[in-house]
Description:
- The chain is an alpha+beta fold.
- It has six helices and three strands, in the order ααβββαααα.
- A three-stranded antiparallel β-sheet has the order 1-2-3, with helices on one face.
- It starts with a helix and ends with a helix.
Amino acid sequence: MSYRDVFGEILADHHESPRNWGLITDPTRTENGFNPLCGDKITLTLKLKDGSSDETLEKCTFEGEGCSICMASASIMTEMVQGKHYSEILKLIEAFREKMQGVEAVEGLPSDDAAEDIVALYGIKRFPVRIKCALLPWTTLKKGMGAAHAG
């Protein structure tokens, strides 16, 4: 049984062709995440909109080494958060975390067709040991957004 058979085409595509791969040369913030249980490592670079009083994330990119779930999750996440306001991103991160922990009715997640990629990640819940892999990019972004917001 292949990775595609277990996790599907969307996650395989994001793993094989990650979106927003690479590091911004002049980021507002750089944040590193590490999962000591499996060895996943991720570096996010964040660029807040210049002169923006509304705290909008202009660009979010990543690099890392880790399992296909972690890298696919980072790719999906970076696509979803670009151009969003800080408070909207934090709501999205919390809603995704709740969904991955088994909460069924979660507010704050997109419900339109554009959400197809994030919906593909929900299947990871069937593999409890892999949930932290999917969450690592999101928790790293929350840490980075908090630091960027603080100053």
